[in-house]
Amino acid sequence: MAATIKDIAKKTGLGLATISKYLNGGNVLEENRLAIEEAIKELDFRVNEFARGLKTSKSKTIGVVIPELSNLFFTSIITIIEDILRQKGYGILVCDCRTDEKLEYEATEFLVNKMVDGIISMPVSKDGTHLKLPLSKGIPVVLIDRKVEGLNVDAVLVDNVSASEAAVEYLIDHGHREIGIICGPKDIFTSHQRQLGYTQAFVKKGMFPRQELIRYGEYTVESGYACFKELISQHKSLSALFVTNYELTLGAIIAINELGIKMPEQISVIGFDNMHLAKVVKPRLTIISQPIQEIAENVARIMLKRLLQERVDEAEIINLSTKLILGESVLEKSLE
What we know:
By secondary structure, the protein is an alpha/beta fold. It has 13 helices and twelve strands. 45% of the residues lie in helices and 16% in strands.
């Protein structure tokens, strides 16, 4: 028969209120904590989360809605968040919405019905329609990577404009003018920000960006492959390429290798997001590196803060910086 809280009380001689406080994350006297933990171990006590959820309206579960479970950036962040939340007694429930607004709404509705205590979202919809239900019920929401205008919601973002600007400026400073860019979906906040940085880099240098060298695709290897093939077939003079996502970068590199194009002799490349890929590709790839650990830690911190607050104050918006990690994939090009 499973041990109960009353068995712990009998074993330790402590009151039910003290034991309940400990089990719910409250602070108790050190001697009481040690006695409770020893009793839990001896009795093999397990908290009945379902019963506790019904009693407290808290499930100790955080819902996560992401666009693509296959996306390395998303899964890397979620893994770190899960580790942090687990230490605080929370589990996570992840839903992949396949970058589909309807599925995103359905996934969020599903999580609300599962009585999650909070929702972490990398939004697909521009207006955040899927977030209105949890927000109306007072469920805290934290956004990753993408901001929704008009919603007073916590968000942990990366300065994508500056990231792209730094990459493209580096290419311009190395003599490149025919610079292509492969972005994600045109209507995604992050994609738009990275394209904006590309444009601003040219403007800062007193030049005009060429719109025909901009390509939009899905965040997949296949899309990166197809976008590069189309770009190079239409613009033989292309001398440099900036790819704004890991999967897109991998696809473009596969296409470059397949076409027998030498990097950086025939085309210079700056990729995105993955140090392992940068080291595997020869010559070593120059990349924009995002602070994945810092993103995850801030998301978890804000969510835990909201879970302990009854009153929600002004949304906390964090903007983190990226780094340009130099490799050997950019050639100094003569302007003569």
